[in-house]
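Annex B. Sample input.
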Amino acid sequence: MTGGIYQLDGKVPVARAVPFGLQHVLAMFVANITPIIILCSAVGVEKGVSASLIQNCMIIAGIGTLVQLYPVWRVGSRLPIVMGISFTFLSLAIGIAASQGMGALMGAVIVGGLVEGCLGLFPRQWTRLIPQVVAATVVTAIGFSLLPIGANSFAGGQGSPDFGSLQNWTVGTITLLVCLVTQLLGKGLLRSLSVLVGLAVGYGVALCMGMVDFSALREAPAVALPVFLPFTPEFHLDAILAMVCVYLVSATETIGDTSAICSGALGRAVRQKEMGASVACDGFISSLAGLFGCTPITSFSQNVGLAAMTKVVNRFTIATGACILMLGGLFPAVGVLLATIPQCVLGGCTIMMFGSILFAGFGMMARCGFSQRNMVIVSLSLSVGLGFTSASQMFSIFPQIIQTVFAQNCVAVVFLLAVILNLVLPPERKEE
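Annex B, continued. Sample output.
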């Protein structure tokens, strides 16, 4: 029987759960470790320390995912949400670390996470600001914001020397077609594993074309324990305030992902308690990440898209993925092997997944109704949020903190504008 994988608390044998959990790990693995790699490179962290931080990132992502799945007190939503290191904080993290040191960055991460976590413990005080139409708008913005990421991966990864090459086009297209055919023609387990099947075929093609490099495996140690407090935290008020602002942006993304997983994968509206518990996990586990030298974590939208597309929502199944992530941190060879997957293969897998988030957002809008008031909220928020951030230089007249938070983050702009419009626009009048 395979029905358990489509139920939140269904019973699934370990052997059957592992491939589905692995599918979630493969969908987010590179994105999870990339922010810390970029940060270490930008601020000149020595190679040995950066390797330890990469391992810590995998362990923290696994812990965060397990807490979301199996809550601790009021921290964790009990929803099939996968957590990982967030790109949202990257530019600010580089700025703080470059000017004040990694200790100041970790201090800001720890304090900012506690602020967001406490916010999540009291959802009644703020969730009324986020009715269904606002949540639908944010989910749609998340879908749109992910499309360039999928496209860049499909072409080989932004900045790669072979970006847009015939090799990348070929492998990415084959991967996408295999995912699509398996999703449309496959049945039962095969259909639910369409992304993993496409990834396996794409990886095989890339291997035959000489695009996979195993050289890093030779240097990977057999076992490596996580390093606690690799940097001594320092607490600078300016760094903390800037980090708290970006934490609020991260909270909006988590709210959008939580709404999307309920709408797209579970077929229902998100509950107030789930929204707050999801944000609390986001914040408190981010503080834990700071103790291990990592930048904050957040919910991963690509995994929301995967759950919405395959309808695999079983908590135990996704928990196996979290355990694989943690094993990757303890046994570096596992992580190094997963990191050999070419970007074009990941891009071929994720294109349709990201589109499914858009579809979930459209479905939420349809349930809200297409009233004149909703039309103004959705259309103005999306057009300003997506349009202005695509021309990010127009934010140059604003202070640096405004540029950091909003200039390249369409989700933050969309969320802020949607909330404001929902508050100031008069309620819809019933026509006689």
